[in-house]
Design a protein that fits this description.
The complex is a heterodimer of chains A (about 325) and B (about 425).
Chain A: H1 33-50, E1 64-69, H2 75-86, E2 90-95, H3 100-103, H4 107-116, E3 121-126, H5 131-138, E4 142-148, H6 154-168, E5 175-179, H7 186-197, E6 201-205, E7 221-223, H8 226-230, E8 235-238, H9 254-261, H10 265-268, E9 276-278, H11 291-294, H12 301-319
Parallel strand pairs in A: 1-2, 1-3, 3-4, 5-6, 5-8, 6-7, 8-9
Chain B: E1 2-11, E2 16-25, E3 28-34, E4 45-48, E5 53-56, E6 58-63, H1 76-85, E7 88-93, H2 104-117, E8 121-126, H3 140-146, E9 150-152, H4 161-172, E10 178-180, H5 185-188, E11 193-194, H6 197-202, E12 206-207, H7 209-226, E13 230-232, H8 238-249, E14 254-258, H9 260-264, H10 286-298, E15 303-304, H11 333-338, H12 348-363, E16 379-389, E17 408-418, E18 421-425
Parallel strand pairs in B: 1-4, 1-5, 6-7, 7-8, 8-9, 9-10, 10-13, 11-12, 13-14, 14-15
Antiparallel strand pairs in B: 1-2, 2-3, 5-16, 16-17, 17-18
Helix pairs in contact in B: 2-3, 4-7, 7-8, 8-10
Classes of the chains: A alpha/beta (about 325), B alpha/beta (about 425).
Chain lengths: ~325, ~425
C-alpha cells in the first residue's frame, strides 16, 4: 500500500506562513508575486524530502490524485505521479490519447464520472485551451492544470522559475529570452506570468508566424532576431518546435528554421558568460537546440526536471490542505 | 377591426413620425387617424398606445429556425414565438437545416408549417448551392416559386469565386438576391475567436478580421463585375464597414447587415472561455465595434439582424474550441438596438428603418416594413421606457445560449400584431390570439 509507507513527516516550519486560499491551480495569470514565492518556498521544503534516503512523507495519505491525461505525456505525468507518491497519495493514471470528444464522451461526462469516484485532486492535461477552468467548474475536488491547449502549464512556469532561482538566486532584472513557437506554447504563457511577475526582463523570439505581434502587450519585448534575443541574456529558454501541432506550414523547412531560430554555440556566445539554457522538453536535437549545447554545462534541462517534482509536490500538498491529516 | 389608439406612429415608409391612431381591418392597415384622440365609437378592439411607439412589424432578416432537422434546438413554432416576444412579425430563416433547404419540398414544408403553427411570417432563404456544397447552383426559380425569397449558403459560404460569379450572373435576370456570409475559410480555418490579444492570451486559435474582409471585398467586386445584387451578412469588422461604404459610393448593388452583439460586445466577453460569447464571425475589438456604430449612424449598414442561432446546452457546455458557434437573439435584438438611441445619433425612425423598412425593401417583401394604408397588418407596439431584465426563465426559444442573461434592458415590444392577429402582448386588455 502506497499510503502505508513510512517516512518522517514534513518539517512544516520551513514554509513561510501565508494563508493558501486556492482550491485549484488552473494558470498563473492571476497569481500574485507573493503566492508564487509561497509555492517556491513550499517546494524548497519538499526538496528536503527528495534528498532523504526514504523519499516519502505521509502528508497526503488517504488522498487520491487522479492524473487525467488526454494528451500524450511522459515527463509531466511521471513527475506528478512521483510527486503524489512521495506525499503518500494514492495516484491513479487515466490516460487517453484520443480526445474525449472523439471517443463520444464529452469532457463534462468524463469529469463527472471521475468526480463521482471522489478523488481529492485531478491533474489534467487536455488539448483544448480553457479545459482546466471548465473542469474546475464541474467537479467538487481540486484541479491542477497540467497543460491545456495553448493556454497554460502552470507547474512548468513555476518549476522554470524555481530552477532559475536555484542557480541565480533571483530573476529580477535578468534578461530571459523565450525562443520558438510562442503562438502555440502554454509553457511560454505560464512563464510570461511566473517570470514576469518576479521582475524578469522578458524577451520573446521566433519567426513572425509563431510570435503574434500582439504578444508585445504581455510586457515582453518581441523580436524576430535570435541574436538580439540572445545578446547579453542570462537565460535562454528554447521551446520545442511542435511539428505535430502545425496543420499548415509556419516556416519553410526545419532546415530554414534551425538556420534562423536554432540555438547553436555561435549564437549562444552572444549571451552572458554564465548564461543558462533551458528547455521544457522533449528536445528536438539539432533543430531548436544543437546537440552540443544540449549537453553542455550551460544546459540546466535536467535541473528543470528535478525542480518539477518538488514544485508538483508543493502544489499537491497545498491543494490537499497543507496538513498531515487524512480524510 | 382593431384600433391602435394615440401612439407615436413611426413609419419611415410614409415619412410619418407623429401621434396618431392606426386602424387594422381584415389583416391590413386600413387607416391612419392623426392626433391623440380617436373616434368616440369604434366597433372593435381598442388598444391604448398612449406613450408607446407604433411601428411597422419588425423584420429579422437573419435567423436559424433549425426546422427541419434540429427541432430539439428550435422549431418553427418556438422560433416564431420567440420572434413575436421580441417584437418581430417576420423572420428570414437560413437554409442550413437537415435536409438543407435546397429543394422546393423543404421550402414548402417551412412555409406550410409556419402558416399553421407560426406566430410570425416566415420567409425561407434557399441554399445557393445543392447541399450547400459550394458547387452546383440550386434551382433558383423553382425555389422562388415555392416561397424562397433569397439564396444563401450562410454558415458554409461559397468558397469558389467562380461559383459565386455564376450565381450572381444567373440570379440577375430574375433580380434574385444573394446573401453572403463573408468568410475566407482557409484564413479562418481552425479559429475559434477573434485573432487578437484576448485570444492570444487565452491560447485560443484566432480568426483574423482579414478572413471576413477579403471575402467582403471579393463579394463586392463580383457584384460590381456581374451587376448582380448581393447582401453581406453580419458584418463584424471595421474594414468590412469601410469596404461596404466604398462600394456603395461606387454605385455597386450591395447592402449589408450587422447583429446587435457586434455593436454591443467585444472579444473581451470570451474571457474565462465563455462559450456563450462564441459566434462566427467572432466578437471583435473595440475599434471594430465603434466602426459598426459609425456604419449604423451614417447609413452604410442597412439593417440589424439577430443571427438567432439556437444551440442546445451541451454543445455550449464544453471546451471553448469545441463549442458551437452562435447565440439566440430574437428576444434581445430590439432592446439592444434601442440602446443605440442613448447617444442621440440614431433616431427612432432610423431604428425602424434598420429593423423593418430597409430589410423589407432589400428582400422585396411587399406590404411589409410600412404602415401605409393597404400594407399588411404587421405592427409592433414598443414601450420605449420599459425597464426589464432579460432572464433565462422568460426565454421563448427552445435554446438558452445567450450572453445577455441578467442584463438590464430599456425598451421592449409590448404588443405585436401579425396580419392583424395579436401574436404577443404584455398589455392589459390585449390578449394574444390563439
Amino acid at each position: 500500500m502506497e499510503g502505508g509507507a513510512t517516512g518522517e513527516p514534513l518539517r512544516e516550519r520551513e514554509v513561510t506562513p501565508m494563508e493558501w486560499r486556492r482550491k485549484h491551480v488552473l494558470g498563473l495569470a492571476d497569481f500574485s508575486a507573493e503566492e508564487i514565492e509561497f509555492v517556491i518556498d513550499t517546494a524548497r521544503s519538499m526538496e528536503d524530502v527528495l534528498t532523504r534516503d526514504i523519499k516519502k512523507v505521509p502528508a497526503l495519505r488517504g488522498k487520491t490524485v487522479v492524473n487525467l491525461f488526454f494528451e500524450a505525456s511522459t515527463r509531466t505525468r511521471t513527475s506528478f505521479e512521483i510527486a503524489g507518491k512521495r506525499l503518500s497519495a494514492d495516484v491513479v493514471n487515466f490516460s487517453s490519447s484520443v480526445s474525449s470528444v472523439a471517443k463520444g464522451e464529452t469532457l463534462l461526462d468524463t469529469a463527472k464520472n471521475i468526480n463521482a469516484m471522489m478523488p481529492s485532486i485531478i491533474v489534467m492535461r487536455h488539448p483544448a485551451s480553457g479545459a482546466a477552468q471548465f473542469l474546475s467548474r464541474h467537479v467538487s475536488c481540486s484541479v491542477i492544470n497540467a497543460g491545456d491547449g495553448s493556454n497554460e502549464h502552470p507547474s512548468q512556469g513555476l518549476l522554470d522559475l524555481y530552477a532559475i532561482i536555484k542557480l541565480k538566486d533571483k530573476v529580477k532584472g535578468l534578461k530571459i529570452s523565450i525562443i520558438g513557437d510562442i503562438l502555440h506554447s502554454r509553457v511560454a504563457r505560464s512563464n510570461l506570468y511566473s517570470l514576469g511577475r518576479m521582475g524578469a526582463d522578458l524577451w520573446l523570439c521566433g519567426p513572425g508566424t509563431l510570435v503574434p505581434k500582439e504578444m508585445g502587450r504581455s510586457g515582453a519585448t518581441v523580436t524576430n532576431d535570435i541574436r538580439e534575443a540572445v545578446r547579453d541574456a542570462d537565460v535562454v529558454m528554447m521551446l520545442r518546435i511542435q511539428l505535430e501541432r502545425q496543420k499548415t506550414a509556419y516556416f519553410p523547412s526545419l532546415r530554414e528554421y534551425t538556420r534562423n531560430y536554432g540555438l547553436n554555440s555561435e549564437v549562444f556566445s552572444l549571451a552572458k558568460k554564465d548564461a543558462i539554457i533551458m528547455h521544457p522538453g522533449p528536445i528536438n536535437r539539432g533543430v531548436e537546440l544543437s546537440d552540443e549545447l544540449a549537453d553542455s554545462s550551460h544546459s540546466i534541462i535536467l535541473n528543470q526536471v528535478e525542480s518539477g517534482v518538488a514544485i508538483r509536490m508543493a502544489l499537491l500538498y497545498l491543494l490537499a490542505g497543507g496538513h498531515h491529516a487524512a480524510h | 377591426m382593431l384600433l391602435i389608439k394615440g401612439g407615436r406612429v413611426i413609419d419611415p415608409g410614409s415619412g410619418r413620425d407623429e401621434v396618431g391612431s392606426v386602424v387594422i381591418a381584415d389583416g391590413k392597415v386600413a387607416d391612419f387617424l392623426p392626433g391623440g384622440e380617436a373616434p368616440g365609437t369604434f366597433n372593435g378592439t381598442v388598444v391604448d398606445a398612449a406613450g408607446k411607439w407604433v411601428v411597422p412589424g419588425l423584420i429579422d432578416m437573419h435567423v436559424h429556425l433549425r426546422d427541419p432537422g434540429f427541432e430539439w434546438k428550435e422549431d418553427i413554432r418556438s422560433g416564431t414565438a420567440a420572434a413575436a416576444a421580441g417584437g418581430f412579425t417576420s423572420v428570414v430563416c437560413m437554409a442550413n437545416t437537415s435536409p438543407v433547404n435546397d429543394h422546393p419540398e423543404v421550402t414548402r414544408y417551412i412555409r406550410e408549417k409556419a402558416a399553421s403553427a407560426g406566430r410570425a411570417n416566415v420567409f425561407p432563404v434557399a441554399a445557393l448551392t445543392c447541399g450547400q456544397n459550394g458547387k452546383e447552383m440550386t434551382d433558383f426559380s423553382e425555389l422562388f416559386e415555392a416561397g424562397a425569397i433569397a439564396f444563401s449558403d450562410d454558415g458554409n459560404p461559397v468558397r469558389s469565386a467562380l461559383v459565386l460569379r455564376r450565381a450572381l450572373e444567373y440570379a440577375k435576370a430574375f433580380d434574385f438576391l444573394i446573401l453572403e456570409h463573408a468568410e475566407d475559410h482557409e484564413l479562418s480555418g481552425g479559429g475559434a475567436a477573434n485573432e487578437g490579444w484576448t485570444a492570444h492570451r487565452l491560447g485560443i486559435p484566432g480568426i483574423p478580421s482579414a478572413a471576413e474582409e477579403i471575402a467582403i471585398a471579393r463579394d463586392i467586386l463580383l457584384a460590381r463585375f456581374t451587376g448582380g445584387r448581393i447582401h453581406i451578412q453580419h458584418i463584424s469588422t471595421k474594414m468590412g464597414v469601410d469596404l461596404l461604404r466604398m462600394a456603395k459610393r461606387a454605385g455597386i448593388r450591395v447592402t449589408g447587415e450587422t447583429a446587435p452583439h457586434y455593436f454591443t460586445l467585444t472579444d473581451a466577453a470570451i474571457e474565462g472561455y465563455n462559450t456563450y460569447a462564441k459566434m462566427n464571425p467572432p466578437l471583435r475589438e473595440e475599434e471594430d465595434r465603434m466602426a459598426i456604430l459609425e456604419g449604423i449612424v451614417d447609413g452604410t449598414i442597412d439593417a440589424i439582424a439577430s443571427d438567432h442561432a439556437p444551440h442546445d446546452e451541451y454543445t455550449k457546455r464544453c471546451e471553448f474550441v469545441a463549442a458551437s458557434n452562435g447565440i439566440i437573439g430574437l428576444e434581445t435584438a430590439l432592446p439592444l438596438s434601442m440602446a443605440l438611441l442613448a447617444g442621440g445619433k440614431v433616431t427612432p425612425a432610423r431604428l425602424v428603418d434598420l429593423l423593418s423598412a430597409i430589410p423589407a425593401r432589400i428582400l422585396g417583401l411587399k406590404g411589409k416594413g410600412t404602415l401605409r394604408k393597404g400594407a399588411d397588418g404587421d405592427v409592433t407596439i414598443v414601450d420605449p421606457e420599459a425597464e426589464w431584465e432579460f432572464r433565462e426563465s422568460d426565454v421563448r426559444s427552445k435554446s438558452r445560449n445567450s450572453p445577455f442573461f441578467g442584463w438590464k434592458m430599456r425598451g421592449r415590444a409590448v404588443a405585436v400584431l401579425c396580419r392583424g392577429r395579436v401574436t404577443h402582448s404584455l398589455m392589459k386588455g390585449v390578449t394574444p390570439d390563439a
